[in-house]
Amino acid sequence: MNGFPPGFAYERETISAVIHGANPLVERNIRVRLRANKHGLCGNLIPPARPTAKFQRATGRLQLRLAAHIPLPRAENLYIETGEVREQFLSKGRRHDAGQHPYCLVHWCGMVLHLEQYLLDVRKLKPLSVISFQQVPGSLPVILGPSAILSLTLELREKPESQWCENESENPIAVLETDISPYPPHCIPQAIAAMGVYGYVSCDPETWTSPLLALPMQYGSLIIQHRKNGALPQPALVLDSALPLGTGPDSYFECEFHVLGASSAIEKGESPIRIKTSPEKMLGAAVASVRPPEPGVVCDPILGNRYGRAATMVTELKAHDLEIW
Question: Of the chain's two ends, which shows fewer C-beta atoms within 10 Å, N or C?
Fold first, then answer.
């Protein structure tokens, strides 16, 4: 028994257009059908039903509007994607529409600027400029942004032997697992999500040629927030991302950052900084959530991007406490 009714089938079509930095526009038009058999689910690709021209135009227009807004030294890190996910179930010979999920994603140097069903209104973005880390006052409080929180938490959860993971329910930071990702292409029905890694891989043909051991065994999404709430200090140094570059006592993280000004203006770091630290130390320094959970992204060129929601958290650290390499 595989848990699926006889004749069960699930179709998923993902259409999108992506522009990353100065690279040419890339189309994605994937339609996959999963059918139940005595072994579980059998997946195969079927011809796409719809063109991508609508999303090519939307992504191109958004790139033009953002070009005058994003500081040139960091424009190569701008990622824009517009698309739609359409789902259908087939049961007892009848099709059931499971919905259409349009989305627009814009992220830049660790900051998810927009991830919603509607297109980004560039006029609503805060003013952006560039700053070097040497110009950052050492007295500024350190804040962890959603992508940094998500990355540090995922890094810790890959170490189940750590004390932080053993006592996760007692930690001041609450972590909720969910199948509902803020990024629609990563959302799948609960019945398929219950299959764990096999369910997620079945819905993602881009992983079908990868060895199973090369894939992350923790799929789904996370919602992360501190059990205490606090006020957002301004100005402050915000760490936008935390890319692990080592393990053990000599571990360090490459972090994108920005300075949040008193008037909410953003001065983006002209280049990432490397901080000698550990996930336990950084998350342990968090004292309160200062914003509700918002979308974050952990960029991985090998395994693909991971998306989740995390609160912005203020820490007990000051900028001069960071051990910069």
Answer: N
